[in-house]
């Protein structure tokens, strides 16, 4: 099985090319691939499959609008609806492999279509869709409660504004959250304003633990920070936000209708996964 290793602001992925959908990926295989000591190591797996061969009727319904489907898996083997950094790295891979031309086109994800803008090299940007505000929520770290804003970016987020530097948080263990509010689990972000439209953020991802970046989380915190500037009701924010994560810097732009995420998407290595390792229990 061929693989490529890539990352977006150090949110890292094992990319598995599977154009015609022959690969039988299981939660166990994904967890082993993502294992940082006994596997390749990653925050998640991106299976690259033609939308019409995705093996998922909801995805295949998007085949007329997007040639490729992002089949995203978290490091623990769970599936997620969307991955903002993953989409960007996936697009970089498609262009690098000659499977898509540089330019602007749709990708299919479990959260629907996402439009990417990708050149021959450099940053990749993606239309992430409008953030969906879902009201207040709460998480706790080491027994200390943090109030946050629930935001859906296709996947669930709780964006908690804090006053102290994010470096002071201990995220070695998963934050506690209300499982009735988040029956499917949640990605929990902690952010602090550090300048005009400028935030720092750390994230504890559902299914992956603390990661060095999260694209959907970045948009969620910018949306939560912008909430005060949005008018009550159905208006969405406008403006550009810089979000510093442990692995670098991302830019989030709101135009009153949707959100765009822009940042680096880097391919690092490629190789073969040994069949004997893959089939060993
Ligand atoms: N790192 C990703 C988000 C990956 C999915 C997330 N862990 C979930 O379960 O929803 C990003 O860049 O958005």
Please write out the topology.
Blueprint: E1 2-8, E2 11-17, H1 27-34, E3 44-50, H2 57-60, E4 68-74, H3 84-96, E5 103-109, E6 112-118, E7 124-127, E8 132-141, E9 144-152, E10 156-161, E11 176-177, E12 187-195, E13 198-205, E14 209-211, H4 215-226, E15 238-245, E16 248-255, E17 259-263, E18 266-272, H5 275-279
Parallel strand pairs: 2-3, 10-12, 13-15
Antiparallel strand pairs: 1-2, 1-18, 3-4, 5-6, 6-7, 7-17, 8-9, 8-11, 9-10, 12-13, 13-14, 15-16, 16-17
Ligand LBFN2T5F binds next to helix 3 and helix 4.
Subcellular location: Cytoplasm
Protein name: Diaminopimelate epimerase
Family: Belongs to the diaminopimelate epimerase family.
Strand % is 35-45%
Q: Count up the helices.
A: 5
The number of distinct β-strands equals 18
Query: What does the average pLDDT come to?
Result: 96
What is the second-level CATH architecture of the largest domain?
Answer: Roll
What is the C-level CATH assignment of the largest domain?
A: Alpha Beta
Number of domains: 2
Radius of gyration: 18 Å
Helix amount: 10-25%
Bound molecules: the ligand N[C@@H](CCC[C@H](N)C(=O)O)C(=O)O
Topology as H/E string?
EEHEHEHEEEEEEEEEEHEEEEH
Low-confidence stretches: none
| SSE-based structural type | mainly beta
Shape: globular
Q: What can be said about the biggest beta sheet? A: 13 strands, mixed
Kindly report how far apart the N and C termini lie.
17 Å
According to CATH, the fold-level topology of the largest domain is Diaminopimelate Epimerase, Chain A, domain 1
CATH superfamily of the largest domain: Diaminopimelate Epimerase, Chain A, domain 1
